[in-house]
Write a sequence for this structure.
């Protein structure tokens, strides 16, 4: 696998554009539905290389920016029951190297949340490279993964009428756009 064979490929260091990126999640609520949310504070960099095994990603998410479109729930998620943002204000994901898995790409990165770091594979699609109207160059990626919240010390035990309020499995979906760093 060589990324350099992709149309418009550009090797370089890319800064994540937080205005055009989205990091969201879905979790079961009361067994019967799913709640979606997102983090509005995402930053980091992506390094593309002609040798995919030398590529890297560093993403930081400000957990204070959680947004589930419900202020009361967002406040609860920031509390010690969930993210404990006073002590652990950031989630990070760091990966070095890309591997092919069939027609997909996978990053085997380290996800850190609440003082716990675990390897989490992230399946992603390279959406493409292209110029922007400001004289720069952009790249886009879409990615998905799943984690178990309890693996990261998010152990809230809410139960109502014998039903778990929050599921353990968290589906994460990512849309990243990044700008090629100049000079």
């Amino acid at each position: 696998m060589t990324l350099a064979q992709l149309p418009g490929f550009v090797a370089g260091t890319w800064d994540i554009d937080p205005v055009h990126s989205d990091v969201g999640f879905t979790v079961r609520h009361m067994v019967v539905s799913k709640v979606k949310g997102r983090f509005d504070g995402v930053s980091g960099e992506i390094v593309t290389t002609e040798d995919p095994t030398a590529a890297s990603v560093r993403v930081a998410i400000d957990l204070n920016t959680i947004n589930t479109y419900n202020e009361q729930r967002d406040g609860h998620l920031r509390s010690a029951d969930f993210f404990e943002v006073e002590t652990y204000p950031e989630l990070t994901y760091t990966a070095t190297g890309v591997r092919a898995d069939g027609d997909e790409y996978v990053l085997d990165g380290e996800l850190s949340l609440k003082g716990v770091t675990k390897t989490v594979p992230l399946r992603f699609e390279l959406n493409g490279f292209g110029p922007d109207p400001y004289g720069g160059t952009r790249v886009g990626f879409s990615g998905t993964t799943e984690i178990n919240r309890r693996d990261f010390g998010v152990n809230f035990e809410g139960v109502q009428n014998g039903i778990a309020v929050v599921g353990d499995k968290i589906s994460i979906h990512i849309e990243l756009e990044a700008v090629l760093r100049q000079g």
Observations:
- The longest helix spans residues 71-78.
- Residues 14 and 180 are 4 Å apart (CA to CA).
